[in-house]
Amino acid sequence: MGASEFQCTSFAKDAATAFNQAVADAQHRYGHEGYTGSIAEKSSYVVFDLPRGVSVVKALGWAGLMARGAMDREEATGTWLKDDQKVALMRSARRTEGKVPPKHRDLARALARVSDDKWGPALCLEVKGVALERWRAKSGMKGKRGRLFVFTGMASE
Q1: Concatenated DSSP letters for the chain?
Q2: Which of 8, 57, 84, 108 is least enclosed by beta carbons within 10 angstroms?
Q3: What's the whole-model pTM score?
Q4: Do 21 and 27 touch, CB atoms closer than 8 A?
Q5: pLDDT tens column, 22-49
Q6: Residue ranges of the domains in the chain?
């Protein structure tokens, strides 16, 4: 059994309602039998509050960089590798992780840990500010009350 990355959005009054709507929608689209590779496989979520000025897109990009760095570090522990290969992988990990601003690295690592766990909860981030207003205008929701949540993670398939 493998895993697929999923990402979906849901507009609702709060994260719990948004999560339940996203799961119900995925079950309708992909079925109720399990192993859909979608949010339908998740039974819970973890909300992260992003610091001011950090967008959802930027935070998810940083999480991806930290996940790649962690994979390089893990691979560098392989006994089948020569020493120069291990050094190259560790340099690659430092270079990749170095693209994340130092003050946001702990957040990016935490986001990566949650989003890369296919058996754990879904990662939930709220879209705010200008990005939310653009989404509302684009989707015909201008003037409507509610909040926009992005759910992402890995799910079994």
Answers
A1: --EEEEEEEEEESSHHHHHHHHHHHHHHHH-SSS--SSGGG-S-EEEEPPPTT--HHHHHHHHHHHHHHHHHHHHTT-TTS-HHHHHHHHHHHHHHHTTS-GGGHHHHHHHHHHHT-TTSPEEEEEE-HHHHHHHHHHTT-TT---EEEEEEEEEE-
A2: 84
A3: 0.90
A4: no
A5: 999 999 999 988 899 999 999 999 999 9
A6: 3-156
Question: Which DSSP string do the residues of 38-54 spell out, in sequence order?
Answer: SGGG-S-EEEEPPPTT-
Strand-strand pairing, 122-127 and 3-12: unpaired
Token pair listed for 123:
């990662």
- Which residue do the tokens 């709507």 mark? 21
- Whether the per-residue pLDDT at 113 is higher than 80: the answer is yes
CA atoms within 13 A on the CB side of 126: 17
